[in-house]
Design goal:
This protein is an all-alpha fold and 142 residues long. It is built from five helices and no strands.
Length: 142
């Protein structure tokens, strides 16, 4: 479980920093919003992989739901934490991107590992939802 804890510590450290004043651009906003999907996908994936060798691995649904839930709940905690950092905000759009990224990672890992070999269509749908979420967060000014 060292990797998930390290991922959480890194996310906490990154969200604790005051953002540097920079001119806003669409490209920067797209990059920032897409990093939520990537970061929380990595967190959920690291939890899922950490549990692969544990007894929980025999309970695939628990491992998958648990990894998604831990990453998503950590997203809630991190968003609340950011509300106390000057220059940062607590954002429902960011939390949605976190949850979608976590779900996408779990679905992809389930497909790759053979736990759910027909998860490709679900992964495709989640990928499209992630793109829409990033776009909505960027262009709606969330």
């Amino acid at each position: 479980m060292l990797l998930p804890v390290a991922a959480m510590a890194t996310l906490w450290w990154l969200s604790s920093r005051e953002p540097e004043p920079r001119p806003e651009s669409t490209a920067r906003a797209l990059f920032y919003n897409s990093m939520h999907v990537v970061a929380y996908g990595c967190l959920a994936g690291s939890v899922w992989l950490a549990w692969t060798r544990a007894q929980v691995a025999s309970h695939h649904a628990f491992r998958s739901r648990g990894a998604w839930l831990i990453a998503t709940l950590y997203g809630v905690v991190d968003e609340l934490h950011q509300s106390y950092v000057p220059g940062r905000v607590c954002s429902a759009a960011d939390l949605a991107s976190d949850a979608i990224g976590a779900a996408l990672a779990v679905v992809l890992l389930r497909g790759i590992s053979g736990v759910a070999p027909k998860s490709g269509s679900v992964a495709g749908i989640l990928f499209v939802v992630a793109i829409l979420s990033i776009g909505a967060a960027t262009f709606a000014g969330w």
